[in-house]
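Exercise 7. Predict the structure of DUF397 domain-containing protein from Streptomyces pratensis.
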Amino acid sequence: MAEINWEQPYCGEGNNCFRLGTDHEGNAFIAVLGQEDCHLTDSREALQQMIRDIKAGKADHLL
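Solution. The predicted structure, encoded as tokens:
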């Protein structure tokens, strides 16, 4: 398993904290803070697109 370089946690309102990470093979990861062993994996491009979509308000209905 590749080593994941986790970013500092991002915590929204109500302490819903998650972490983003990447590895040297071009994979991107997202996990709930404290549950990094149970993460979702995708490409960096997919993670970048997800972040762009969130910033554009396309995920507001999920919050």
